[in-house]
Amino acid sequence: MHEALCSTLHLDKAISACVKAAPKSFPIDGIFLNYYRDDIQSIQFLALATQNRSHLKLDILSIPQHVLSNFIVSDNFTTVILNRLSDEPLTDFVVKTHFRKVKSAIVMRLKVDDTRLGAVVFFSY
Fold first, then answer.
1. What's the pLDDT tens digit per position in 27-82?
2. What does the CA dihedral 19, 21, 25, 29 come to, rounded to 10 degrees?
3. Residues 51, 29, 4, 74, CA torsion sign
4. Which is nearest to 99 in space by CA: 80, 76, 67, 122?
5. I need a labelling partner for 86 at 20 to 30 A (CA). Which of 38, 68, 80, 97 fits?
6. CA gap 16, 36 in Å, rounded
7. What Cα–Cα distance (Å) separates residue 43 from each residue in 1, 4, 48, 57, 95?
8. Euclidean distance between the first and the last CA atom of the chain, given in angstroms as a whole number
9. For 11, phi and psi rounded to 5 degrees?
10. What whole-number distance in Å separates Cα of residue 12 and Cα of residue 34?
11. pTM of the predicted model, to two decimals?
12. Residues contacting 66, CB < 8 A, separation 6+
């Protein structure tokens, strides 16, 4: 997967290569990338890849206050495995709004120093 990410600057092609490079024993149907925009309290999508296709996904999803009230941005830079999406209200809201068939996910929120890099979400139907 490391080579796949380094081989291109195109996010959609890079994550598509990661989906295809995943071992058959790793049950992933796709990957999406997004970024939480504190300035407008929204999720900015970046790219989506599944086994069948990949594309840039440049939608913006406003997050309701009742969902944000349970999400402390500065504390949420971990990897979380969600067998029940409802265990994490923000991910549950994002998935139900844009990816209705997703049943489980591995959410990796990334940052370097104090700079948020966004989230990588591996998902399974």
1. 889 998 888 888 888 888 888 888 888 888 888 999 998 888 877 655 556 777 88
2. 10
3. positive
4. 122
5. 38
6. 22
7. 26, 25, 14, 11, 11
8. 21
9. -55, -45
10. 12
11. 0.78
12. none
Cα(11)–Cα(19) distance, rounded to whole angstroms? 12
DSSP string, the chain: -HHHHHT-S-HHHHHHHHHHHS-TTS---EEEEEEEETTTTEEEEEEEEESS-EEE---EEEPPHHHHTT--GGG--SEEEESSGGGSHHHHHHHHHH-TT--EEEEEEEEETTEEEEEEEEEE-
| Residue owning tokens 């709004």 | 97
Short-list 24, 61, 55, 25, CA closest to 41: 61
